Amino acid sequence: MQNPTPYDVVILGSGPAGIQAAIHSARKKARTLMLGRVTNSSLYWAHVENYCCMFKISGEEILRTGREQAAGFGAEFMEQDVLSISKQDGLFSIVPENDEVITTKSIIIAMGTTRNKLGVPGEKRLLGKGVSYCVDCDAGFYRNDIVAVAGCGSAAAGGALALTQYASAVHLVCDKLDIADALKQRLKESSVTIHEGRSITEIKGENAVQSINMDDGSNIDVAGVFIELGAKGVLELASELGIALDDNMRYVTVDRKMQTNVEGIYAAGDITGPPLQMAKAVGEGCVAGVEAAVFAKRLKRD
To answer: Which segments constitute the FAD/NAD(P)-binding domain (predicted)?
Structure first.
């Protein structure tokens, strides 16, 4: 299903950069939607004591208050992670977990940069030798191989489904699936083998990944392990859209208007690079929100 009227601005990310962007774009009367789970923001679990004009305050309270402000200006919210983005006929199409296609004139990426690791033996040593943090980047290297995906969120579920187009067998290892019902149903109807209630304890191999050990003592022979903890990250989305990254392939490159090399796509917050501070995120979110709204309104006139 597709939303009948395109949004002016869709913001990916639920942290301070995204909220500030939502406040400013909505104040400019741009139809604004924020996508993402608030608990995915690293600020949600933190306490802040170095932000201007505030004494120590919980990140959860900051985000709650910010969302109320944005909602007061008309911003909408959807607690769903993003699975894919494409562009067609001048509009961006975003597919969240519930498979509802959302169209928009502009996008602000404010998802942060944390790439969670399993922290198990073999993970660091075999990185690039079968261990990967990006299904979209590396799936093609595992045609007709057996692979495993570690994670319980949308990135893991979506990655496992994507890998079925390449690998001969896909194992999804997770403690407890935490995804929308529509995505869970797609997963269960696929060829993916789900090991729910399990976790990987070791990734084994000499010069390349050969197998994984799990906490129940079992062992699965695999050629690759994709670690996808949380929501889909910048590497995956950038590869889909052709967004330019920095030389280390970690941060999104933007100009002073927070615009990327792709017209209509902006970025703000930790995803644009250090310092990884709320003050910077809020400032960049302000600029991105204003510029994205102006861009969308210009499209209306054209």
So the answer is: 7-285
Beta strands in the chain (DSSP E): 7-12, 32-35, 47-48, 57-58, 76-78, 82-88, 91-96, 102-109, 131-132, 146-150, 169-174, 193-196, 200-204, 211-214, 219-221, 224-227, 265-267
The pair of structure tokens assigned to 294 is 């102006």
Could you read off the pLDDT of 57-92 as tens digits, one per residue? 888 999 999 999 999 999 999 999 888 899 988 899
**Percent helix / strand / coil, the chain, rounded to 5:** 30, 25, 40
Where along the chain do its domains lie? 7-114+233-301, 131-227
Task: Please give the CATH topology (third level) of the domain spanning 131-227.
Answer: FAD/NAD(P)-binding domain (3.50.50)
Domains 7-114+233-301 and 131-227 share a fold: yes
DSSP letter (8 states) at residue 271? G
Burial of 252: CB neighbours in 10 Å, binned 0-12, 13-18, 19+ = buried
**Per-residue pLDDT reduced to its tens digit, 254-292:** 999 999 999 999 999 999 998 888 999 999 999 999 999
Its CATH architecture, for the domain 7-114+233-301, is 3-Layer(bba) Sandwich (3.50)
Which pLDDT value is given to residue 301?
Answer: 65
Looking at residue 134, its pLDDT comes to 76
pLDDT at residue 284, rounded to an integer: 98
Per-residue confidence (pLDDT) for residue 233, from 0 to 100: 67
Going by C-alpha positions, the residue among 100, 85, 30, 105 that lies closest to residue 263 is: 105
